[in-house]
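Quick start: read one record
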Amino acid sequence: MTDTLKSLTETTFDSVEGYRKAAEKADSPALKQALNQRREKREQTLAALNGELTRQGTDSVTSGTVQGAAHRLWVDITDMFERGDEAAAERVEEGEDHLLGQFKDALESQDLAPAEREIVQTCYNEICEGERFGDMIEKQYD
C-alpha cells in the first residue's frame, strides 16, 4: 500500500464529513437534499478506496486527516458568525477544489501501484462530479 492511497482515503473521509456538516448548515430543504445525495456518492467513493486498502491487508480509514479536523473546527467557529446556504455552498466548493487537487496530483505522480491507480482513476470521475457540483452551488447561492 502506498502512503498516497491512504492519504487520498483520509481526505475522502474528510469530504464525507464536510458534506455532512454542510447539510446541517444549509437552510434550504433542496440544498440539504442535494448535499446529502452528494455525501452518499462520496461515501461510495470512500468505500471503494477502503476496499482497496482492505484488499491490500491494511485497515480501513475510519477517521480523517488532522488538517481536515482543523478545517472542521474552523467551520464550527465560523458557524457562530455565518449560517445558511451561502456558507454551506462556499465550504463545499472549497473542499471539492482541495480534494480534486489531491486526486490530480496522485494521478500525475508515479506513487500509485497499478491496482491503486485503477481505483483512484475510477474514484476521480466521482470527485470531478463533486467539484462541478461545488462550483454550481457556489454560483447559485452566492
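The chain has one domain: 3-57+65-141.
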